[in-house]
Predict the 3D structure of the following.
Amino acid sequence: MFENKARAELVRHSEKLWTRGWVANHDGNLSVRVAPQRFVCTPTGTSKADVSDGSLLVTDAAGRILSGRKKPFGEYPMHLAIYRARSDVGAVVHAHPPYATALGVAARELVCFLPEAIVSLGVRVPLVPLATPGAAAVTALEPFLDGYDAVLVAGNGVWAWGEHVEQAYLRLELVEHLATIAAAAAPWGGPKALPADLVAQMVEARKKYFPRYAGKG
């Protein structure tokens, strides 16, 4: 039952990414952990508008295909690295929303300038150096997995993860929302930093809602 629901969520959010213009061609990928050693992911070479339940793949934790007609996408090792590092993560979503992706290609990280965003994302969405898919990309990503739930990858859009597909998607959505506001504010000097005491309050609220961050700076 859980796996059926997870598969439906992958299909639904694949279509949402395409509808919002956050992926083009074969861009983007999604996955979900349905058991400790069992994962479902979207296939390579497929528009997110065309992802269906029948096109999804099931793999083990090493990426070996258990069922499905196509192959996993080339960035799948990054998904599996996230799952290995974070036992609390149940889903990963990757896409190229324009404003957030623009920050990445400009080699800029995103500092959270709205109080509520700090609760959801932390004080910043860091920039991961671009690396070729495979071992190099995993190595570049790994230092950011413990302390963050979303990252920008230089030249490769936004990556977000969460307990389930909806949470991972909403975190990616928030990153793009912040990047869009930052772009709109640029003619007036860009977003201003929040007061330090307010940031501290929001960080404490984040620890309350997400206990894994308790005790961290």
Remarks:
- Residues 19 and 211 are 34 Å apart (CA to CA).
- The longest helix spans residues 165-185.
